[in-house]
Amino acid sequence: MIEVHHLNNSRSQRVLWLLEELELPYDIVPYQRDPKTRLAPAALKAVHPLGKSPVIRDAGVVIAESGAILEYLVGKYGNGRLTPARDFGSPDYVAYLHWLHFAEGSGMLPLLLKLYVGLLKEAGAPLSPRIESEIKNHFDYMSAALGENDYFVANTFSAADIQLSFVLDAGAGRGPLQAYPNLLRLRERLMARPAYQLALARGGPYEVGR
Ligand SMILES: N[C@@H](CCC(=O)N[C@@H](CS)C(=O)NCC(=O)O)C(=O)O
Questions:
Q1: Prediction pTM value
Q2: d(CA 204, CA 105)
Q3: Is 158 close to ligand 1, i.e. is its CB under 6 Å away?
Q4: Do 129 and 54 share a domain, yes or no?
Q5: Is the pLDDT of residue 174 over 90?
Q6: 7 lines ligand 1 (CB under 6 A)
Q7: Each residue's pLDDT tens digit, 89-103
Q8: Cβ count near 102 (within 10 Å)
Q9: Element containing residue 201 per DSSP (H, E)
Q10: What is the pLDDT of residues 142-164, one digit of tens each?
Q11: Is 9 in the pocket of ligand 1 (CB under 6 A)?
């Protein structure tokens, strides 16, 4: 059975959602963030040295990093679902790889910088213009790439949309997402999926971007 080491209000929500989309059985091992620091409990370090979530264990193999986990699950169990055909000559497959990696490799970075530099209050102010312009740069890019389409890759729902959803969530609320109606509509579309709702019911409260 696939085991998901799931931290509340975290990126591991995407893994639960993907597993529901693929209709795969899985067990959740739950962890709670420290209410003050928001950090994961030390117990997660016993599962993987980084002590972060998501982590999965499948057939005795431990895998960390959400993009790798999604690629692994879709490749091993997807039977062609939620991905374009694996063909490195296909623009759709290359776009799929790009978006799958963009989410954590690029999209999250300026949002995280804002979060951490914000803790410095006035001392961080000199960094703000660059951070804000990079947030805009990345959201402008996502919005222009999506355009009037419903989904990022070949206008078909894929694991790349699941992976990108955390960037949308992190940009929601009082974040930059409000300025991008097409990204807001995509977020609504994703949240309305039955598998998304099932994952919420199993994973417990998820408040990122609410
Ligand atoms: N790039 C990694 C990021 C993992 C990560 O930072 N997870 C956060 C939750 S969203 C975490 O575990 N934070 C708790 C901590 O750092 O103590 C991924 O996508 O899996």
A1: 0.97
A2: 27
A3: no
A4: no
A5: no
A6: yes
A7: 999 999 999 999 999
A8: 22
A9: helix 194-203
A10: 999 999 999 999 999 999 999 99
A11: no
